[in-house]
Amino acid sequence: FSRRGLLTSAAAAGSAGIVGATTGFALGRGTGPLGTGAGDGGPPRRDLDGANGPQTEPFFGTHQSGVETPTQAYAHFIAFALKPGIKAAEAVRWLRLLTADAAALTQGQAPLADSESELAVDPARLTVTFGFGGKLVALAGKEHVPDWLKPLEKFSIDRLDADRSKGDLLLQICGDDPLTLAHARRMLFKDSRSFAEVAWQRDGFRRAYGSSGEGKTQRNLFGQLDGTANPGPGSEDFARIIWGQGTETTDPVFSARGEPPADLGAHLPAWMRGGTTLVLRDIAMNLDTWDKADRPAREFSVGRTMDTGAPLSGKDEFDVPDFTAVDERGLTKISQVAHIARARDGLGPEVQIHRRTFNYETGAGGDSGLLFASFQADIERQFLPIQRRLAEVDLLNEWTTPIGSTVWAIPPGATEDGYVGQELFEG
Predict the structure, then answer these.
(1) Residue closest to 367 by CA, chosen among 164, 79, 73
(2) Pairing of strands 196-205, 169-175
(3) Is residue 152 part of a domain?
(4) Which residues have a Cβ under 8 Å from the Cβ of 142 and sit 6 or more positions away?
(5) From the CB of residue 50, how many other CB atoms can be counted at a distance below 10 Å?
(6) pTM of the prediction?
(7) Are 199 and 166 in contact (CB under 8 A)?
(8) DSSP H helical ranges for 245-383
(9) Hey, which residues does 127 pair with through a beta bridge?
(10) Cα–Cα–Cα angle for 294, 286, 210, nearest 5°?
């Protein structure tokens, strides 16, 4: 058997394979559901009907996206620690670079240095939100660092990991497609190599896009509806509670909680006008011990039903809880130490937050928990009154443990010819 014969046989077999593959492709394209129907040998038509990939969220504007934006399916939080010796001028270059690339990626455009530009085509509602820590702000001058931009006070329930409770710059990267998210994360990480190192990072998830109707409250890994009491995006409540200032709306409508003050953001420094504050808590959830709690025990601990999320005093998820309602035995339907009561009962209309939460788990038998991103105009007046009460007593503490905690200043949005943080460094 000669070498020439071997090569000739292989070539013939290869040709037959190519013909077969080509024939199969042509037959497959034809008029089938994936075909163009043209039979012209061109690429199959891309069906975008109902696809989420082309959808975008604005990047530039008065406020940063990723706060009032309807919460996406996936999130990646990455905190950076500044390299030693970084000065204000270098921080500005970094922020300009991050802003330019984040702006491009969120609109489905590849940044200049993107070597995998095809991965940028489908933004799938990608947003990138910047958070500043005290050390980064101090580069512009220590006088610009607000008093509240520091670690929270210590709570008895905390078991904080120091490695998950630090950082100088936070990027909250959210979107409805995990591949798009991974690509954006890598691009922004590459932008940061010369200026900072990764302090910590954590992935989070919710229901996948299209799994449930738009606007439905998400569930956490305990199976609870999570976020029922959030202020509505675009509402006067949201403008006051999160952005810290009222709008010029005539006869504004407020939730059943009452009218929140219109000056909750008055304490924010000038460079933060149009921004807000973020407290990010990493809360470990003990699913194994939660498994042992029956449904009545779970509902008693939360103060809501597991199926509909209705308060135990009502019938529907958005019913206003009645903390004085009693059952046929004369006992209050919602325990005074249930989670909903501790987070709400007796607190004024200003004590509200906007929570953007994402679940996480690291595999069977691994870590499970909740990334609790709390946005509010004033940490002292809004977040801390709730957190102090929950730390004092809350039945849910039996199954949850805070293991990470950071505080961030969320600057206003950027203009198209500017960058995030420009008011701080150039204002």
Answers:
(1) 164
(2) unpaired
(3) yes
(4) none
(5) 6
(6) 0.89
(7) yes
(8) 287-291, 295-302, 339-344
(9) 174
(10) 85
Cα angle, residue 356 at apex, residues 400 and 304 outer, rounded to 5°: 55
Amino acid at 60: F
Q: Are 136 and 82 in contact (CB under 8 A)?
A: yes
CA pair distance 92, 169, nearest whole angstrom:
13
Quick: pLDDT tens for 200-214.
999 999 999 988 877
* Residue 249 to residue 89: CA distance in whole angstroms: 41
Residue 38 has pLDDT above 50, yes or no: no
Any domain includes 246 = yes
Considering only 26-40, 131-145, 206-220, which range has the smallest mean pLDDT?
26-40
Task: Specify whether 226 is catalytic.
Answer: yes
Asked if residues 355 and 348 have their Cβ atoms less than 8 Å apart, the reply is no
User: For the chain, give me the number of helices (H) and strands (E)?
Assistant: 10, 10
Which tokens is 303 given?
Answer: 């103060």
> What are the pLDDT digits (tens) for 145-170?
999 999 999 999 999 999 999 999 99
Q: Is the pLDDT of residue 12 over 70?
A: no
pLDDT, residue 364, reads 85
Q: How many domains does the chain have?
A: 1
Residue 51 lies in a domain: no
Token pair for residue 207? Answer: 């229901």
pLDDT digits (tens, 9 = 90+) for 57-110: 999 999 999 999 999 999 999 999 999 999 999 999 999 999 999 999 999 999
Residue 118: give the domain boundaries.
Answer: 74-426
Task: Reduce the DSSP state of residue 184 to 3 states and report it.
Answer: helix
Pair of tokens at residue 309: 């999320």
In a domain, 198, yes or no: yes
Could you say which of 114, 226, 282, 378 is catalytic? 226
